Amino acid sequence: MKIKVLLFAALLMVFAACSRQETGGSENSVSVDSIETLKSGAMARIKEEHQGKVLLVNFFASWCPPCRGETPDFVKVYGEEKERFSIVALSTDADKKDLAKYISEFGVNYPVYMADQSLSMEFGISTIPTSIIYAPDGKLVDIIVGSIPEKDLKNIINKLSAN
């Protein structure tokens, strides 16, 4: 009798754990309809919205291995530094479904948009990831082609915030 009760209790625990995992994933899902597409000329508005902070504008794609590698660092640093630092991510993906899945998968906590081809052309983006760094006063500071490790990102923020 004790064995049957223990087996029943174990099965209940397994089912409870499985149902928690399923609902947990859906809470983090992103609606495809909520993803805005930015076109050429949108950067003036973006820079204005983030005035007073170091701004990193990151062109990326969900399928890009270096992009996938830097995203967890971006999420972490943004969470720690959002008082003086902003990230705006611009996806070059062809499908919003891929982008929505990516945002959910990595728990992205900063604004993410689809980049219209005209916006990518405006900045001459031919390689991803490419990050454009603006000082708190809105002036262009640097364009970095390739991924940015957490340590380097923190150094950029510290240097530009001190000025």
Short description:
The chain has helices at 2-27, 43-49, 65-81, 96-106, 117-122, 150-162; strands at residues 37-38, 54-60, 85-91, 112-115, 130-134, 140-145. It is an alpha/beta fold.
Please describe what this structure looks like.
This protein has 163 residues and is of the alpha/beta class. It has helices at 2-27, 43-49, 65-81, 96-106, 117-122, 150-162; strands at 37-38, 54-60, 85-91, 112-115, 130-134, 140-145. A 6-stranded mixed sheet has the order 1-4-3-2-5-6. α4 (96-106) links the parallel β3 and β4 (112-115). Mean pLDDT is 84; it is low at 2-27.
Keywords:
6 helices, single chain, 19% strand, 6 strands, alpha/beta, 163 residues, six-stranded mixed sheet
Distance between the termini: 73 Å
Low-confidence stretches: 2-27
- Percent helix: 40-55%
- Structural class call reads alpha/beta
Shape: globular
> Strand fraction band?
15-25%
Order of helices and strands: HEHEHEHEHEEH
User: Biggest sheet: strands side by side, in what order?
Assistant: 1-4-3-2-5-6
Q: Main β-sheet: number of strands, strand sense, barrel status? A: 6 strands, mixed
